[in-house]
Every structure is written in structure tokens, then in C-alpha cells.
Amino acid sequence: MSRKPVIAGNWKMNKTVAEAKAFFNEFLSQIDVDDPEVVVCPTYTSIAAAVECTKGTNVGIGAQNIYFEDGGAYTGEVTADMIKEAGCEYVIIGHSERRQYFAETDEGVNKKTIKALEKGLVPIVCVGETLEEREDDNTFDVIKTQVEKAMKDVNEPKKVIIAYEPVWAIGTGKTATDEQANEVCEYIRKLLVEIFDKDIADCMRILYGGSVNAGNVKKLMSMSDIDGALVGGASLKADFVTLVNYKK
Ligand code: PEP
Fold first, then answer.
1. Would the CA dihedral through 141, 201, 245, 237 be positive or negative?
2. Is 49 a pocket residue for ligand 1 (Cβ < 6 Å)?
3. Which of 37, 104, 129, 165 is flagged as catalytic?
4. Of the residues 95, 97, 129, 133, which is catalytic?
């Protein structure tokens, strides 16, 4: 089963419009492959500029969050339609920073995933255990709950991308070993077989995220159940291109 690899950058709360344009100027001049699928997720304010800069390239743009309602009195929130209109094709859902700092719940993640699919967006659904949960041997239970709740009533699962991001590896410089990362991604695929079926699970892309950089990406990408990377810090500089071109 061949799954198209994905390298996705999450800029978090970084880069003004001017900085985003400068990034794409340098980054796009060095992109020369159409495999893997490349995604960049800037802040809302830089989405329009990012879409403009990447027009006609194989780089897709995503948002870092949406709200699950279609509109109304939800100060500060943004709908799926709004980011779609702005040119996004992807949206990150349930990033651990949203779960940790903005009280995002598994139920909310599920509603957002369903809304993203309904509006034709590719959801990149993040799951991952904390250091405490790993040390208490609860990694698989935590992942099971997060994946099962996120995928409840999802009717176009093949379009969903799951990102396994152990919280202890995000922005810490501490990467999971290739084996640790693959072990959980393999477990996620088993869960997807149980929730959907084998054909569907075999088509779904599962990314690893957590301090991925130019030095470790190639090995991670060679693992059987890792289909890509969700990259934070290392996606902020134009040499993110070295991760995109990991095969070279
Ligand atoms: C992330 O924010 O999704 C992430 C994986 O960050 P970093 O690569 O900086 O650990």
C-alpha cells in the first residue's frame, strides 16, 4: 500500500505577513520535487499572503485551527468556510498546545474534524501523550481514547491525516526514537482498522511530530507506519526545504 508522504509545517504564533512572504521567496526557489505533499500552516493573518505566494506550486496551505460552528457569536473564532475561502486546503485540529492552553477537548476535536471534512478541508488531527502519561505506561490508553473519540462518526476517513505528536517531544529538542514513534503510529493504524477497516486504515496517512529536523527526518520517514512529519520549529526557516527534500 503506497501512501503519499506529507511534510507539514506548523508556524504556530510566528511570522508577520512580511516575514511569511520573505520565507516563501527563499523556500519556493529551492523546491524542486512534487513528492512529498508539502503543507505550510501560517497564522490566520498570513494565510492570504501564503496562498498568493504558493499559487501554482505543490505547496498547500493550512490553518492551525477552526471552530466547529458555521458562524455566530463566538468572539475570536474562525469558521471552516472562512479559511476555505481564504485558500486553505488543510487544517490542524487538536494540536497539544490547543489542548493544553485553550482547553480543547476530544469532543471538540471530533466536531472540528467532522466540520473540516464537511467543508472539503483535510484535517490534520493531532494526538499524543504527555511525559507523565508515558512514564505511567499510559501511552497506548491515551492514544486509544484520543483516536477513537476524534474519529467518531467520521464518514470520509481516508481524507483524514493523523499526527502522532508526543507532548514531551514538541519544541523540546527531544525526539522520540524512530522505534518509539513507529510503535505508536503502528498502534494508531491498528486502531483505525478496528474503527473503520483495513482498506481504509491502509490509505490513511499518519505523521510523526516532535522536534523533527534535517538530521532525523530521513530515518523517521523510513519507518513502516510513519507517512510524514508535522514540523514546528524547523519549519520556520527556509531550510525547511531540506526536510521537504529528505529523500535527497
Ligand atoms: C509541532 O508544533 O507540531 C511540533 C512538532 O513542534 P516542534 O517540531 O518544534 O517540536
1. negative
2. no
3. 165
4. 95
- Ligand 1 centre to CA of 46 (Å) is 19
Whole-angstrom distance, CA of residue 213 vs CA of residue 233: 8
DSSP 10: E
pTM reported for the whole predicted model: 0.97
- 12-52 tens-digit pLDDT: 999 999 999 999 999 999 887 667 999 999 999 999 999 99
Long-range contacts of the stretch 84-88 (C-beta < 8 A, 24+): 84/119, 84/120, 84/121, 86/47, 86/48, 86/51, 87/47, 87/48, 87/51, 87/61, 88/47, 88/51, 88/61, 88/62, 88/63, 88/121
Ligand 1 close to Cβ of residue 211 (< 6 A):
yes
Q: Which atom of ligand 1 is nearest to the CA of 126?
A: 3
Residue whose Cα lies nearest atom 6 of ligand 1: it is 232
Domains delineated in the chain: 6-244 (3.20.20.70)
Q: DSSP letter string over 61-75? A: EEES---SSSSSS-T
